[in-house]
Write a structure and sequence with these properties.
Layout (H helix, E strand, L loop, with lengths): L13 H6 L3 H26 L7 H19 L12 H16 L12 H9 L4 H22 L6 H5 L4 H53 L3 E6 L4 E4 L1 H11 L11 E2 L13 H7 L2 E8 L6 E11 L5 E10 L1 H39 L6 H30 L3 E2 L2 E4 H18 L3 E5 L5 E4 L1 H17 L6 E9 L2 E8 L6 H5 L9 H6 L7 H11 L3 E7 L3 E9 L12 E2 L5
Parallel strand pairs: 9-11
Antiparallel strand pairs: 1-2, 1-6, 3-4, 4-5, 5-6, 7-15, 8-10, 11-12, 12-14, 13-14
Helix pairs in contact: 2-3, 3-4, 4-5, 4-6, 5-6, 5-8, 6-8, 11-12, 13-14, 14-17
């Protein structure tokens, strides 16, 4: 018999609710259908056949069934063996036999109520075969008992008349037992499948957690979309990218602010990664996404997902934030371009003036002063080239040593102002020293001179003709503070934030064509911090810039009292 034939809808599955009852209530509930049926029959008998209640057999049968019902509700069946519950249906069969015998001739159909105890025994799982045998024997006893008990002769016709009842009840008993066995097999199969489903669900949860852990541990944004392009899953890195501006949306909900690799050309809607991935896989698509303040460069790759029939079911899109790398490449290109220009300019000048000097040496009419002038120009450009190479080497090395000593700051500043004098006069810039005499600073003289030279060089270079560069100083507790102020081009707040970055140059300086590699401020910051000091900047576009340096004024105020202190790698 197939299990599927006996699938019972959940609304009709009384077994589960019945199983929650106590053993006593279970036995009592199994008895109630017979009691209710006999109650209805008894009312009918009262109206139609009142003479039946004068029969001893009928009264005995009703009494036996009533006693069986009382026993069903009183005995502690949970503490008795399983077979003991057969006491009730066997008593019921005995009572039905007395009813059948006592009402012979008037209530021949009463034998049909044997179905209730028969089904009970067959469904009880105690002994299915014994239940069939007892059913047939009890049925024969009930229908033939009155015939053999009568005083008249036993005729074949009287025995054959009710003969269908025992085998029918036997078949009913067998079918009920088989159904019960089939249902038990079915329920056991369901329990096994439930256990397998629970185990599969737990395994699925574990795999999902493991997959989420792996995806969230990588620094690549992973987005899974369905066949319609709707988001299915995002890892943590993808959420960060989305929050960072990758998913800027307009009022209509469409994705906007996505550009091609040049960062200028808007990407067509049908070329957006999520839509393009549904048409086929691709590798290393570079795009720019986000608003003006949070734009990111992304390298996007995708793999299309298909089912067994080749239909597209979705895609997996991996996005890597390469903004830092792109900016680094651009910085490298700018640096190469800038350094190439900076090296070419003095080299061209050196070679040109040396050639002119050599030509002048072969001409006796050229005065020596002119030849000396050519050589001086070549020397100045050589010094400039040497300074540029020194800055590059210092930046590339990233480290050095300092040997701090007590120094008179006013004298040191005056010496550096004299060194910067020729450049200042050529640029028509006035240099002013307002450092008070006697002000002391604890620093490496060569390194501090390098900082002053960088600050003064920048101030003179970026101050228009007729401007002023002023150096002032003061004592602040155990620190010495000096500043270099100019009346030059000035800088915006955004430019000030990147000022101490290597190779950084402002847009105004680039447009003006002022030479430089953008290394002086980064080197100066590293030197100052290696002394345990601090350098800051305040600037207003078009009004000028003030650099302020704070250094220890004595050995006990220095960041490190030991000579040979290593410089920070930022230099």
């Amino acid at each position: 018999m197939s299990v599927n034939m006996w699938r019972i809808p959940p609304s009709l599955d009384f077994h589960r609710r019945f199983g929650r009852l106590s053993p006593r209530l279970q036995v009592l509930c199994a008895q109630l259908p017979l009691v209710a049926t006999l109650g209805v029959i008894t009312l009918a008998w009262t109206a139609l056949f009142p003479q039946l209640f004068s029969s001893t057999g009928v009264l005995t049968g009703l009494g036996i069934i009533a006693a069986a019902t009382a026993v069903a509700g009183l005995l502690p069946w949970g503490r008795l063996p399983a077979w003991s519950t057969w006491i009730i249906p066997l008593l019921d069969l005995l009572g039905i036999g007395f009813l059948y015998s006592g009402g012979q001739g008037l209530i021949t159909g009463v034998s049909l109520v044997q179905l209730f105890p028969v089904v009970w025994m067959a469904w009880s799982r105690v002994a299915p075969r014994a239940a069939v045998v007892l059913t047939v024997l009890s049925a024969l006893l009930i229908v033939w008992g009155p015939i053999f008990a009568s005083d008249g002769p036993v005729e074949r016709e009287s025995l054959a008349a009710p003969i269908l009842v025992p085998p029918i009840l036997g078949v009913v008993s067998y079918v009920c037992g088989a159904m019960r066995l089939e249902l038990e097999t079915w329920r056991e199969s369901l329990r096994t499948k439930d256990a397998q489903l629970v185990a599969a669900l737990e395994e699925s949860k574990h795999r999902a957690q493991l997959l989420d852990g792996v995806l969230n541990a990588i620094g690549v944004g992973v987005l899974v979309v369905d066949a319609q392009g709707r988001d299915v899953h995002r890892n943590t890195a993808q959420i960060v990218l989305d929050d960072g501006g990758m998913r800027a949306r307009n009022a209509a909900g469409g994705v906007v602010q996505v550009f091609e690799a040049d960062g200028v050309t808007p990407l067509p809607p049908d070329q957006l990664p999520a839509r393009r991935a549904l048409r086929g896989s691709f590798e290393d698509l570079q795009i720019w996404a986000g608003g003006p303040d949070n734009r990111m460069a992304l390298s996007v790759s995708a793999r299309t997902l298909r089912d067994d029939d080749g239909r597209v079911t979705g895609s997996v899109i991996a996005s890597t934030n390469i903004t830092a790398m792109v900016k680094a490449l651009r910085t490298k290109d700018d640096f190469v371009s800038s350094v190439s220009h900076e090296l070419r300019t003095p080299l061209t000048s050196i070679l040109g003036y040396l050639e002119m000097a050599l030509d002048s040496l072969s001409d006796p009419e050229v005065p020596a002063e002119r030849i000396a002038g050519h050589l001086e120009v070549a020397q100045r450009n050589g010094d400039r080239l040497l300074q540029l190479v020194s800055d590059l080497l210092a930046t590339a090395g990233g480290s050095g040593t300092i040997t701090p000593l007590p120094l008179p700051l006013a004298e040191l500043v005056d010496d550096r102002l004299q060194a910067a004098g020729p450049r200042a006069r050529a640029a028509q810039v006035q240099l002013v020293n307002k450092v008070p005499p006697g002000l002391s600073v604890y620093a490496d003289p060569n390194r501090l001179c390098q900082v002053l030279d960088n600050l003064l060089s920048n101030a003179v270079k970026y101050t228009p003709d007729g401007g002023t560069v002023t150096v002032s100083g003061a004592a602040d507790e155990n620190r010495t503070v000096f500043s270099v102020a100019d009346t030059g081009l000035g800088m915006s707040e955004e430019e000030q934030a990147g000022l101490f970055t290597r190779f950084f140059r402002t847009e105004a300086v680039r447009r003006a064509g002022i030479p430089g590699a953008g290394l002086g401020m980064a080197i100066s910051k590293g030197i100052v911090e290696a002394h345990g000091g601090e350098i800051t900047v305040q600037s207003t576009p078009g009004e000028g810039t003030v650099f302020t340096v704070s250094l220890p004024s004595a050995p006990d105020a220095a960041a490190s009292e030991e000579p040979g202190h290593a410089m920070a790698g930022g230099a």
